[in-house]
Amino acid sequence: MLVEQVGRGRSVIAQRVSELESAGLIESAGLGPSSGGRAPRRLRLAAERGLALGVDIAATELVVGVADLTGTVLDTRQQAIDVADGPEPVLSLAERLADELVGTRTAPVWAIGVGVPGPVEFRTGLPVVPPIMPGWDRYPIRDRLAARFRAPVWVDNDVNLMALGELRSDPDAGTAGHVLYVRAGIGIGAAIVMDGKLYRGANGSAGDIGHVAIPEGGSIICRCGNLGCLEAVAGGAALARDGRMLAESRQSPALAAVLAQARAIRPYDVAQAAEKGDRAARALLQRTSALLGGTLATLVSFYNPNLLVLGGGIARAKARVLAAIREAIYRRALPLATQDLRIEVSTLPEEVSGVTGAVHLALDEVFSPANLELWLEAGSPTALDHSATVTTTLPATRPRSI
Amino acid sequence: MLVEQVGRGRSVIAQRVSELESAGLIESAGLGPSSGGRAPRRLRLAAERGLALGVDIAATELVVGVADLTGTVLDTRQQAIDVADGPEPVLSLAERLADELVGTRTAPVWAIGVGVPGPVEFRTGLPVVPPIMPGWDRYPIRDRLAARFRAPVWVDNDVNLMALGELRSDPDAGTAGHVLYVRAGIGIGAAIVMDGKLYRGANGSAGDIGHVAIPEGGSIICRCGNLGCLEAVAGGAALARDGRMLAESRQSPALAAVLAQARAIRPYDVAQAAEKGDRAARALLQRTSALLGGTLATLVSFYNPNLLVLGGGIARAKARVLAAIREAIYRRALPLATQDLRIEVSTLPEEVSGVTGAVHLALDEVFSPANLELWLEAGSPTALDHSATVTTTLPATRPRSI
Questions:
Q1: Nearest-by-Cβ selection for B202 from A178, A204, A332
Q2: Is residue A170 part of a domain?
Q3: Which residue among A113, A203, A236, B156 is buried most deeply as judged by most CB within 10 Å?
């Protein structure tokens, strides 16, 4: 079986298996059913030999998780943050939560995956001019965590990790050839999956669509400093801002009631009000969805995916929102580009997909053939914990297997 | 050497070489320099054993070329057409020109590549709802030419073929990992190259950006029936239309003179007038370039290429146009996405790149491992000339080696 699956000779595999066994990475799981000859020996990954940490830094929330070597998340901690407070408080908190999660577990941390809500140069793990993360530009997240936990660290854009988490949890999405994963919430971003692999582009920024200019953007100033960005017009903050206007102008009785009581309007309130039949809230939600759908139509024409997955806050939206997005895509995208397109909603909650993806990123990298080669002799991936070593083993611009 | 390059065992290669030799596909080219042992035998492709035809159908021009098996174009014919006249007159003319080119050559036609100015379902070779090709929707170009020339035929979008021609002719572009090739002329389209391979998406329509909605599109009606398409605002026809307005309103003395004499304004006239210092023409050209650049900024943010090649009519534009496009991209795209981005102009004239790409498409496909396997036994690829056979051997959605 292994011989067929791996497509290598029997002796090469036997040697590899024995190396992995002496490193304690795989172990025997008894004998399998014989197909005539000698009963085959079954092997399994020694899942509890090491731990993987996942750190998912979102704009207003931090999730840290600990997983075994198969990527099964064992426990998580979640806490509200403001990413704009900068790396020091956010990473200190992440370190504390990770310490709690590792706690009395005896297995060592073998790999750490980190997601941040901004563009990351994947080769170096550095955030580069991230629009909503003041103070994080080129901050050495990887070096800091690698030194703290004596384990190799990989950093990526949070949307890439959500897509990875989704693909690993949804067998259907995992096998679709060309997937566009779109996270729409406070931030808007996309991840590109090609023949089952995350596509990161030349510098790791592929999919960063939150700040592209959109037709209906007009002169709305975005927090990034540009005019008419997608996020400024169709993101969660825009929905809250426009919802507040509807409340203050009393066009929306439902939102006016929320504002009077809570003194703030959240995107969720607009969705709730629309759901309850408030007409102004419904119209606003409809318009925002159509604006997002218009940009997605451009991306569908350009990339021609066969599956579009909507994740983030929008995944909690009701049928009405999705219908508006679908309608905009089918109306504006090229007929051939939508001929076989499926548009679906993420099956995982945002917090879960991000941290799951972070753990899988770390495991994919630490067990990549090149990295495995590097640390097998030392017996443990802590030998990889110098960032220079880690970096040079990673091809800079090639998509990696997910 | 072959053993190292191909990464297969010596005996497998020896068998393959002998198969190819008996098919007359490769021939001996004497002995190479010895590196100690027996002098190696040199092999070369028997370039003149067969012919490849390239048919490049543009909106207003048809180019047909004949090439040897290495892809070297031996001769071409070029003629003005209107693609909107439909498949019958255009393909009849293509067949006649191909007959002339094949003429008294004795080698058989082994493969035909065809480019059309619209979306093509690559798997079936059918144009699908092509916006500027009335009468061509699902027209069986492949079956018609395959029956006429008794050779296998592959059909693709013309921009993909121009990108392929460019990559094969420009070693620099050929090795860049992530290339976005943009053809801007009467039509606007893009081709996506990923790790040296054309990326066609799920249905073959990837890169079709001519009819995406753009921020400044307003209520301009496109020939495709939608509002505010990129092509309707920043394509060559838009340039001519707006140039005519400048002429009629006498805002542009240079264009008014052209209109008085020639009774029409071509995109080229606007560029010429701008070059000669006509201020209105210069402003128009600047604005059109900035609009195109704005859409390219979105695509650069999304795809994060390391090389953007501008081809088509715009490649003949002077520095001023390119500066405006570059400026728009650097201003709007994410800083990380443009960090290592090179923006260059196509090195091949449009007519040459299209037909070169068509020939290379045909040769890539006919010599793909799967197809080679199919026809080697019969001794000639004419055995592939039934479209059903051809189609099923081609994976529908995977990018192919270029």
A1: A178
A2: no
A3: A113
